[in-house]
Design a protein that fits this description.
Strand content: under 5%
Order of helices and strands: HHHHHH
Radius of gyration: 18 Å
Shape: elongated
Number of helices: 6
Number of domains: 1
Distance between the termini: 24 Å
Largest sheet: none
Helix content: over 70%
């Protein structure tokens, strides 16, 4: 069981509301701060997966682009923690009082989201290192691997929800 599954309905509602509000406040900042001046973005760097591909992407970024992307990477750490915990809390809150199967599914979702947050931390460290120095192995590979893992974990959350949605009907 995930620790969120031990919280009562009132606590889940309280913390979900706080994190959803925080998420709502952070999202416009992330959108505003995201640089749009280059043909290549952080998601392009995330899937580069090799030193030559990462070098090609970074060659298109000016010093100010790199500074903006470094800010986004740091901000993304906070954003991801707020986002993933908000979703985990809401998933848990939604199943309070439901079947044990749904509570287990919400716990799996919450754990996957926490693991995805840890992977995001490692992913952003790899990207930050590449921004500050140059793409050297193993940083592009770590960025690519953690991106794949994180996206897989998030997709697993969606799959878990889709498999158990019939229990709500």
């Amino acid at each position: 069981m995930h620790p969120f599954a031990t919280l009562g309905r009132g606590s889940l509602r309280f913390y979900s509301t706080i994190l959803l509000t925080s998420w709502g406040l952070l999202t416009p900042i992330l959108i505003w701060a995201a640089p749009g001046r280059s043909d290549f973005t952080i998601p392009d760097l995330a899937i580069a997966g090799s030193v030559p591909a990462a070098r090609e992407i970074l060659s298109h970024w000016s010093a100010s682009d790199r500074t903006a992307f470094a800010f986004i990477l740091g901000f993304d750490l906070l954003y991801d923690l707020v986002h993933n915990n908000a979703v985990a809390l809401c998933a848990t809150w939604a199943v309070v009082g439901c079947s044990a199967r749904l509570i287990r599914s919400a716990s799996v979702i919450a754990w996957l989201l926490w693991i995805a947050s840890a992977a995001n931390f490692l992913e952003n460290l790899a990207f930050f290192h590449m921004l500050q120095t140059s793409p050297e192995s193993p940083w592009p590979e770590i960025g690519f691997g953690t991106t794949l893992f994180r996206n897989g974990a998030l997709a697993g959350c969606g799959e878990s929800l889709s498999n158990d949605r019939s229990a709500f009907v």
